[in-house]
Amino acid sequence: MGVTMNNLEFCFNQAVVSGASYVGVLIEMEGFPQPEVIINKAENINSKLAYYKKTYDEDLNHRFAKGIKIIGCSYGDGFNDIQEDLT
Predict the structure, then answer these.
(1) Which of 5, 10, 37, 61 is least buried, going by the fewest C-beta atoms within 10 A?
(2) Contact at 8 Å (CB) between 75 and 23?
(3) Contact 37, 24 (CB under 8 A)
(4) Which domain of life is it from (predicted)?
């Protein structure tokens, strides 16, 4: 079973509660051999979650671009924390 919108929301909410400096998502894209990591600062957490909720369905497939999917989420105080969780 993959990551769902509920999992993503929980991750973002935990980032806020814990006072994390960053939140990151792991994105899988057709045609690319490896997923990409997108990292956002804490100040963007709420607006980024709102964007993801509008742009991705419950199973985290991109609504408007076939072949793009969120497959992971993590948060931490540094890029290394997130990288360790997502790779």
Answers:
(1) 10
(2) yes
(3) yes
(4) Bacteria
